[in-house]
Amino acid sequence: MDHFEYRDGELFCEEVRIADLAAEFGTPLWVYSQNALLSNLREIQIAFAEAEPVICYSVKANSNLSILKLMNEAGSSFDVVSGGELYRVQQAGGDTTRVAFAGVGKTDAEIRFGLESNILMFNVESEAELDAIAAVAGDMGVVAPVALRLNPNIDAKTHAKTTTGKKGNKFGIDIERASELAAKVLADGRLSLVGIHMHLGSPILTTEPYAMAVKKGVEIVNEFRAAGHDTNWINLGGGFGINYKQNEAPPAKAFADVIVPAIREAGCRLALEPGRFICGNAGVLISSVTFTKREGGKLFVIQDAAMNDLVRPAMYDAFHRIWPVKPAVAAPDDFEAEIPGCEPVDVVGPVCESGDVLAKARWLPETSRGDLICTFSAGAYGTTMSSNYNSRPRGAEVMVSGGTHRIIRRRETYEDLVANEIIES
Ligand code: LLP
Questions:
Q1: Which atom of ligand 1 has the smallest separation from the CA of 123?
Q2: Is 409 helix (H, G, I), strand (E, B) or coil?
Q3: 165 CB burial (10 A radius; 0-12, 13-18, 19+)
Q4: Which ligand 1 atom sits nearest the alpha carbon of residue 273?
């Protein structure tokens, strides 16, 4: 549990008591560890150092401006998938000349914004997108740097909703068509084929899919070079898994070991787009118990975080460790097993959907009204996928560094909920 640990029976983030933060800012509350964010980025930077990669932190995982600023200052670049994300990078003071712009449905306005921002490359997902980028670049009198996003037909064994590199997903260009589209780029003075891109899925817990992808990638780049392209970049996307349960994810070094040698041998530049690896275990979601009830033979813990805050359990049946902030029983190593002194409970939120469940049949010590609960590994795809469903204001976000903390997003108010709406007077 990176930088989040129990000391003398209560949960700390770095040197700060989580209970103190909850008292100051209320719940639901997102708490991030700045040192966890930095050390996760550093783990990737060190593991891949030999390839001198450009690491493009994947903004979609957590796009809070303070996190983007921190990433920028620590030497990371960015992967964006929308004009909105590119705008965030700018607002955070990020260097847009090292940005990779991905996404299957870029609009002309987004393409123009990317070109105006001098981005490093567009990850191009279809022939139609190539045409659109060429047209906008032609209009602007510039040459657009493009990397073909290839679908390598590799099964990364992730959840059906987060696998991207298998034939039939909406992502990328079938690898068999790579050469044909590359020839099209070569013939078009408005485009320059700077590289290829692949993103296999997320989260990936084995290194084999990357080993296969880099092998295919190097073959294709060599084909492109033989055909006269000045193609240098291999962008292998993100997807590196993290420990949601125990120690199920390999360290960054294991991924680097299968990627770096092939990249160096091919004399290519490496780009990576890690999101979850950097912020997933650097953030937690703190909630407080509103009620408990026994109905239908089950014990429910109803707390004030819900699927609108963290949708991953409802959407992907994702497992997040959950444990009280001041537990009566020490946190176990294995959260899936039966835990002495505990009983299985459904941890649910107040949203009016049966799917509003953070954990099902989870062994937890007794809790009661007002107790604080921590949902771990919530730093990635928590706030970015949150909504105001059931007109629930989003919680505050706090960054902890050592013994200090600062608010990085204030709690939404009821006024915020209706701020953009217009009623006839
Ligand atoms: N690059 C591309 C092109 C991607 O599509 C993604 C994630 C990433 C990089 C970053 O992947 P990461 O390193 O964070 O695994 N909402 C889901 C995950 C969706 C991932 C979408 N693409 C979840 O909560 O598990």
A1: 3
A2: strand
A3: buried
A4: 9
Torsion of CA 95, 96, 102, 107, to 10 degrees: 150
Q: Whose CA is nearest to atom 8 of ligand 1?
A: 238
- Ligand 1 centroid – CA 280 distance (Å): 11
Q: Longest Cα pair distance anywhere in the chain, in angstroms?
A: 70
Nearest to residue 271, comparing CAs of 369, 173, 149, 103?
149
Pocket of ligand 1 (CB under 6 A): 58, 61, 79, 102, 162, 164, 199, 202-203, 237-240, 273-277, 312, 316, 380-381, 385
* CA 81 – ligand 1 centroid, Å: 11
pLDDT, tens digit, 9 for 90 and up, residues 156-193: 877 777 767 677 788 899 988 999 999 999 999 999 99
Is the pLDDT at 15 greater than 90? The verdict is yes
Q: Given this model, what pLDDT does residue 2 score?
A: 59
Report residue 133: phi and psi, to 5°. Answer: -65, -40
Nearest C-alpha neighbor of 292 from the set 301, 279, 283: 301
Instruction: Report how far residue 119's alpha carbon sits from residue 137's, in angstroms, rounded to the nearest whole number.
Output: 13
For 196, half-sphere exposure in the C-beta direction (CA atoms, 13 angstrom radius) is: 29
- Please give the model's pTM, rounded to 2 decimal places: 0.97
How far apart (Å, rounded) are the C-alpha atoms in residues 13 and 30? 11
Q: Which of 6, 15, 12 is nearest to 332 (CA)?
A: 6
Q: Is 161 exposed, middle or buried (0-12, 13-18, 19+ CB in 10 A)?
A: exposed
Active-site residue numbers?
A: 352
Residue 370: CB atoms within 10 Å = 8
Dump strand ranges (E) for 224-376.
Answer: 233-235, 269-272, 283-295, 298-303, 322-324, 343-348, 357-364, 372-375
Write out the two tokens for 158.
């992730």
Cα–Cα distance, 293 to 97 (Å, whole number)? 54
The alpha carbon of 326 and the centre of ligand 1 are apart by a number of angstroms equal to 33
116-165: pLDDT as tens digits: 999 999 999 999 999 999 999 999 999 999 999 999 888 887 777 776 76
Helices (H) and strands (E) in the chain, counts: 12, 21
Query: What is the rounded average pLDDT for all residues in the chain?
Result: 96
- Cα R_g (the chain), whole angstroms: 23
